Amino acid sequence: MAKVRKNSFAFGGGAFGDEGKGRVVDKFVSDFAKKKPVVVYRDNGGSNAGHTVEFESGERLALHQLPSGVFVPKAIVLLGRGMVLHPADLLAEISQVESIMGEEVKNRVQIDEMAVLSLDTHRAFEAVLKQWQEGGRGATGRGIAPAYADILLRHPLRASDLVSFDKEKFRAHFRFYAALISGLGEKLESLLVPRLTGEKVLVGTEKEFLDRLKEESSHLAPYIGETFEKLKKNWVDEKVVFVFEKAQGVGLDARYGVYPDVTASDVTFRGIFSSTEGIVSPEEIAVRAAVIKATYMSSVGSRNLPTEMEESLASRIREDAHEYGATTKRPRGIAYLDLPALKFFARVGEVNALVLTHLDIVYPGVPIKVCTAYKIDGQEVSYRPYQSFLDKVRPQYIELPSWDCRKVSQAKTREELPQEALNFLDFISRELGLPIVMVTTGPKREQAILFNP
Ligand code: IMP
Q: Rounded to the nearest whole angstrom, what is the distance from the C-alpha of residue 333 to the centroid of ligand 1?
């Protein structure tokens, strides 16, 4: 059995992403960073993620490639080799964060030189692919799958390529995607691709693409370097607090999610092992918490969830909990809590704890419906990640009493939570066989209660 390392925490989406991980990590890291050195590490995904952090002032900022630990002064932020990075969007994001945190951010963000690049060519290819295949339709359009596909096709561009800037390598990359896209009937240089800021930009000619990239690489190069040895040294020093901030959720994993709404990176805690080149094994991380919404589930994409809610309650929740995609602004589908699915995600995701968010999303006199089992033809069955299977299951529900949401949003300690909420939390924890380490009670940074600090 692997030895558990002190001061190590990982947070990942326990369902379909958008569970509120960003602010959970932000709260967690800011509490710890007061006392100890902190490293925040992100191992998967890229600009497809959307972590919204809301400040005391009411200001909201959606992060995509930077983990939310970046808002904690002094925390070292590592973008791991398991990520795919878009240089222009990353620079824009760093400058947004700088406008809030000041220039010191520059000294804390480090990019693993082996992280893979996700460029406008990938975004353009994905847009064209959408017209040809069902699978790409739900993607965020950020070129994530094509960038990961480059790895399997043995021709990824890495962050280190931005530093050395071998023009021929980037030229070959551009020509490869131009040829693919031309084979599909489009012209790479005249395609528009989305940017973080919302505008669409033209990919442009090979020369324009190379010039833009060259300019971006000169700004990004200072952040890029060797992180392996530093990571190894810090990991063995147990005084350093490690926080692993994952993106997306286990329900979006290409192996464990439901097609076509799956993403390309390893969204399980196992992904940390490959991103850190074996330095950090998930078994050694003391707390591996799945972040889930306490009273309901939400998802973007085309999947039909077995526990989809009736629209009257779903639309109420959507407005109250702001259930619109942080990256694409799409309205999210809302479903009752589905314990068979969550059990499956926790097991394959190597989860050992829970964080429950949105504990304030309840309505007076409206009991909380929870699916505790699935049946097909009267026989109980487990969750399996195929739409054709899920279309056949009949969810079995129980109803639990709701509570006073105002009391929850004002609670500062576990003891101040209403008894019905505590009973509900105990029920979920027992059913999933996992301890709860934190709950959030409203959207503000301070509306969070640590259960087992
Ligand atoms: P991709 O990650 O852009 O390839 O998109 C694949 C699928 O994952 C789509 O259904 C997306 O909506 C979904 N997805 C990707 N990232 C996120 C996220 O951070 N939150 C929720 N869904 C996501």
A: 14
pLDDT digits (tens, 9 = 90+) for 357-415: 999 999 999 999 999 999 999 999 999 999 999 999 999 999 999 999 999 999 999 99
State pLDDT tens for residues 73-130. Answer: 889 999 999 999 999 999 999 999 999 888 899 999 999 999 999 999 999 999 999 8
Are the C-beta atoms of 296 and 335 separated by less than 8 Å?
yes
Task: Give the type of residue at 369.
Answer: K
How many CB atoms neighbour CB 52 within 10 A? 17
| 189 contacts 205 by C-beta, under 8 angstroms | yes
Under the banding of pLDDT at 50, 70 and 90, the label for residue 53 is confident
Of all helices (H) and strands (E), which one includes residue 274? helix 271-275
Full-model pTM:
0.95
Query: Alpha carbon of 398 to those of 232, 339, 418: distances in Å?
Result: 47, 11, 20
Residue 225 CA, ligand 1 centroid: distance in Å: 28
Q: Tell me which long-range contacts 163-170 makes (C-beta under 8 A, separation of at least 24).
A: 163/113, 163/217, 163/221, 163/224, 165/214, 165/217, 167/210, 167/214, 170/209, 170/210, 170/213
From ligand 1's centre to the CA of 390, what distance in Å? 20
Hey, which of 148, 252, 256 would you mutate to test ligand 1's pocket, going by the most ligand atoms within 8 Å of its Cβ? 252
Catalytic positions, written as ranges: 18, 51
Indicate which atom in ligand 1 lies nearest the CA of residue 261. Answer: 10
The rounded distance, in Å, linking the Cα atoms of 419 and 425 is 10
Ligand 1 site, CB within 6 A: 16-18, 48-50, 138-140, 142, 144-145, 247-248, 252, 261-264, 300-301
pLDDT of residue 303: 85
Enumerate residues 6+ apart whose C-beta is below 8 A from 33.
Answer: 72, 73, 74, 75, 241
**Amino acid type, 239:** K
Query: What is the distance between the alpha carbons of residues 62 and 50, in angstroms, rounded to a whole number?
Result: 6
Residue 366 phi, psi (nearest 5): -105, 105
Q: Do strands 51-54 and 60-63 pair parallel, antiparallel, or not at all (unpaired)?
A: antiparallel
